[in-house]
Each structure stands twice: as structure tokens, then as C-alpha cells.
Amino acid sequence: VLSNDFHQRPQCPDWYSQLHIVAKGLYLKFQIWVMRSTEAQDILNIENLDKFVNISEIPPENKLIELTETKYEYIYDVYMAGSRTISETGFAVCIFKNNISTEEHLFSLGSCNTVFQAELAAIDFAAGWALRNNAKVNIFTDSQSSIVAIKSTNPRSEFVNNIKRNIFNPRQLISVTWIKAHAGNPGNEHADLQTKLATEMVVQLNYPAPYSCVKLKINQYIMGELEDYWKNRESNSILRVRTYVDKVDKKLLIRNKFLTYFLSGHGPFPHYLHEFNLLDSPNCIFALVGDADNITFDCSLTKDYHFKRPVDAHKTT
């Protein structure tokens, strides 16, 4: 009976109260991505944000794009690469004629743009260059995901669909071929070197932030709010856990219920059960406080399973 009563009661009521933070984060993500509300403008600027499109509204000719592979009679070969540092994204497009680089175009993107977007933007730029110069070019990319996105008949991203539409017009002038990265191809290696410089370029192209950026910003918001909650909450359970886990960390996922019992102090301990009137006394049979520390480090009944009591400096993760 005691065991059933214990398991039916909330183990960590303070932890459950944090769910409102996660719920608010999901609400803000909906407001940003779906409603385009300025309510969360301090988290992410909605003015330059990608969006999902209705597949049925995409013109049929733009849904299925067949990419021609290498045409050896084409004069120009174009190699490209995208890269990202901690906070910057960019791409490089290198145009070769007779195996000699004749033009190099380097651009930086926004801090929210991804390498995937940079690789697609590079293909878009190369296709535009072919159209502007009425030149037939072979485009080589080591981004297989970009080719898959262009060939897909149902991409939801407006950014991807705009790229597909831009490629549709010069499709007779270009071929797009996947090449293996870091395989010793001189053109590809040259583009890789140039793209490292692209993130530092002053010339910046304006592409919308993807959905992944929204998720990242919301996750950062949730973690920040949880951190504030964690540091400022003064309940007994959180004060105890904080002596061992001093910060919010998504990588620290505890699945062992016995470890949870110990860290929170919420478990089958006389001291905890006494709080719910399930035992008459908070003490163990030796008249000591029957809490998690007593059971883990001191109690004579559990001495064969004792751990060495950590010093305060070594408690936290």
C-alpha cells in the first residue's frame, strides 16, 4: 500500500511547473512561423523569414525539374561550395574555362542561414550567371542534398521553390552534376578554399532564415528561461538538486529512477514519506534523519552499498 501511494504521488512537483516555459516556447514558435506575429520580435525578426507554401499552388512546370548531367561540349565548368563558421555563412562560385579559373564570386549570408541554403544559393547564382551571359556551363556541386531538393516535386520551403523557379529558365544552358567532396578534384578543392573567405565578405546576399533557425531560436529561448527558473527557484527539491546539477543541460538526461530519487530527495525515504503523512516519523530506525543522504552514505542497513560522500567542490556536474 505504501509503495502504491508513493508512486501515485507527484515525484517532483517543482519540475512539472517548468512545463509552462516549454509550452510558451511552442506557442511563440507558432506565432513566429505560422502567424508571423511581432509578439516574439525580440527572439527573431520575422521580416526575413522563409515560409511553407501550398504545394497545389506551385506551377506544374516548376514541380519536376530534370537536371542534365555533365555535357563535355560545354565551355565553362563551375565549382562551388558553401561553409559556415560559428556565426557566419557564405558560399563561393568559381568559374573555369579550359581548366583555368576565370571568375570567382564570394558572398556572405545572414547569421541564420544554413550551409544547405548556401549550397542552393550557389547553384542559383551559377544558373543566373549562365542566363545573363548566355553561356553553357557544367555546374559541379558536392551537395547531394541540394540536388535532391531541386529534383523534389514537393518541397514546402518557399526559398527552395524560388531556387527551382530560377533554375527552370536557364535549364537548357546548364548541367548539374554531383561530385564527391575532398576527393582530389582541383576545381572543387579550389572552391572549398575560397568559401572559407566567403564568410568574411562585405558583400552579403539577403536570403530568408529557414524553419530550422526558428527552432534554434526557440530552443535557445526555452533554455534561457529554464536557466533563469533554475537559478531563481528556491524550493527544497531544486535547492538540493542544484548542489549536484548547477545548470540546465539538455545533454544531461537521467533515466535511472534511483538516481532521480537521490538527486531530488523525492523517493522511498522516511523523511520524504513523512511529509505526506505516510510515515509517523522522518527518522530511520537509528533515530537519524532518513533522507537520501543518510540512506546513500551513512545508514548501517545500507552500508554494503554506500558511496563515498563527495566534497562540495566535486558535487556539481
Structure, described:
- The radius of gyration is 29 Å and the shape is elongated.
- The chain starts with a helix and ends in a 19-residue tail after the last helix.
- The protein has a five-stranded mixed sheet, sandwiched between helices.
- Helix 3 packs antiparallel against helix 9.
- The chain has 13 helices and five strands.
- Strand 2 and strand 3 form a beta hairpin.
- The protein has three domains: 51 residues, no CATH class; 154 residues, Nucleotidyltransferase, domain 5; 66 residues, no CATH class.
- It has 317 residues and is of the alpha/beta class.
- The N terminus is likely disordered.
- 41% of the residues lie in helices and 12% in strands.
How many distinct folded domains?
3
Name the CATH class of the largest domain.
Answer: Alpha Beta
Dominant shape: elongated
β-sheet strand percentage = 5-15%
Strand numbers in spatial order across the main sheet: 3-2-1-4-5
Structural class: alpha/beta
Radius of gyration: 29 Å
- Output the CATH homologous superfamily of the largest domain: Ribonuclease H-like superfamily/Ribonuclease H
Number of strands: 5
User: What's the total helix number?
Assistant: 13
Write the layout of secondary structure elements.
Elements: H1 2-8, H2 13-16, H3 19-33, H4 60-63, E1 76-84, E2 89-97, E3 100-109, H5 115-133, E4 137-141, H6 144-151, H7 158-168, E5 174-178, H8 186-198, H9 211-232, H10 236-242, H11 257-264, H12 270-275, H13 292-298
Parallel strand pairs: 1-4, 4-5
Antiparallel strand pairs: 1-2, 2-3
Helix pairs in contact: 3-9, 5-7
Protein name: RNase H type-1 domain-containing protein
GO molecular function: nucleic acid binding; RNA-DNA hybrid ribonuclease activity
InterPro entries: RNaseH-like_sf, RNaseH_domain, RNaseH_sf
